[in-house]
Amino acid sequence: MELIFKLALVVVIFLISLLIAMYSTYAERKVAAFLQDRVGPNRAGPWGILQPLADGGKMFLKEEIIPTNANTFLFIVGPSLAIMTACIGSAVIPWGQKLTIGSYVIDLQVADINVGILYIFGVVSLGVYGIMIGGWASNNKYSLLGAIRAASQNISYEIAMGLSIIALLMVTGTLSLRQIAEQQHGFWQNGYFAWNAFKQPLGFLLFLVCAFAETNRSPFDLPECETELVGGYHTEYSSMKLGFYLFAEYINMFISSAVMATLFFGGYNFPFMDMIHSANLVTIIGVVVLFVKIFAFIFFFMWVRWTIPRFRYDQLMDLGWKVLIPLAIANIILTGLWTTFIRG
């Protein structure tokens, strides 16, 4: 029975990820319209809410084109790998506390492993291969340049992201996302803020900037960079192969938001949760609270995209190697001093 519940949870998370990715495209266009004083999608359905379905139908019905000189096998593998790595990142995220239904206890986490953060980093490092393979297999110079940019960008910012997490691990003492979430119980505990964003503000800021770079979101969207590379690594793609790349970007944004909400903002924890005596009610409210935090991050991703101009490539690399990495190392040193001499 436990296996059935796990499989059901996997299916539900997968469907929710696809649904959020689908309607993130609608939200992106509405947010852009709001910031630019436009209307946005308003034709397909009331207020344009059926626009993602129309876009999806268009993707499915478009002609599949594979360039003559492309490596056909790798051309198909690229977007498939991108969407697969985007989806499997959600396996270690605790979506809520345990839910009790009759005699059954349902754990709202697919895999509670004690190296959850390492798993996330492993999946993130694999994600760039989908972009690299697709860009190289297209046999297009613009796609290849986009793939090279993606590789160097991800390597550069993964280092800073990893260093920012080291300081968090020094505070929490665990690699398990479940335990990190439980340590942030409620909001105020033992006379101080329980959420890690208050304990590691610099670490959170570094992780946030690196998350933008890892998901190839503006102002770090150099791998696609329409003004320079036509469409970047997915220039030659059409139909659902292109759709897979676009879906992977929005799923990555969703998973990144969930990871940041879990690591730094308490995950499913919320203020005054101890005042509610029903465990199931606490779990349900916690799931809703977690998704509110996730949607807040997704809105921030979109807000930044339509506010800040894209970096030049040399500025991108300078920021990663000359600013973020030294700041992350300094944060580790400061955290070590704090844990040794102040926290004791």
Helix and strand arrangement:
Elements: H1 2-35, H2 51-61, H3 72-88, E1 99-101, E2 104-106, H4 116-137, H5 141-172, H6 177-183, E3 188-189, E4 192-193, H7 196-199, H8 201-214, H9 226-229, H10 239-264, H11 279-305, H12 313-342
Helical content (DSSP H or I, runs of 4+): 55-70%
Q: C-alpha Rg, in Å?
A: 21 Å
Percentage of residues in DSSP E strands: under 5%
Gap between N and C termini: 45 Å
Largest sheet: 2 strands, antiparallel
Q: Catalogue the unreliable spans.
A: none
Task: Return the average pLDDT rounded to an integer.
Answer: 87
Shape: globular
By helix and strand content, what is the structural category? mainly alpha
* Counted beta strands: 4
The sequence of SSEs as H and E is HHHEEHHHEEHHHHHH
Number of helices: 12
Name the strands of the widest sheet in spatial order: 1-2
User: How many separate structural domains?
Assistant: 1
